[in-house]
Amino acid sequence: MPETDKRILILGVGNILFTDEGFGVRIAEELEQKYEFSPNVTILDGGTLGLRLMGPIMESDYLVIVDIVLNEGQPGDVFRLLGEDLNKACAFKNSMHQTDLLDTLANCSIVGQVPDDIILYGVEPVNYKDMSAALSPELEAKMPEVIDAVLKEVENAGGTYTSRTMANPATEKIYVPRDTSGNS
User: Fold this and answer.
1) Exposure of 128 by Cβ count < 10 A (0-12 exposed, 13-18 middle, 19+ buried)?
2) How far does CA 8 lie from the centroid of its chain?
């Protein structure tokens, strides 16, 4: 399959109501708001949908997941994880969705429809237990780095993107905005 024909899925997962737990969703929102992608690229706010993500995952050839991970790093450390490292980082039980993500990928594998490439960009959280729509300042500061990394993955997989302007504004609405004032 030519590179440009790869179906690329950027999947942001997490729960935006628990501080850094929403990091992946916030990345998906930012990508959707700031960039327009080629037709072979889909940006998806996977939230905490778990097994309901099987369809979009099985329809993709190149999957980039963005989430928080407990990977024995320092808060704010960014990891690019593949294969067994991805499984270990996603296996923690303190999350409201992580085990669902592993189960979802395992079920896709059982059905025989797993993307050729699966990459997880995970960030070590500061706080994923307190209720707040705001990210910690440390993870808020990591957003540009992770967005740049995801955009490079899109290019490497054969996708393209352009910055949004007044001529091509985002149509997706953000219903629970994050607090960037630092007041939470």
Assistant:
1) buried
2) 12
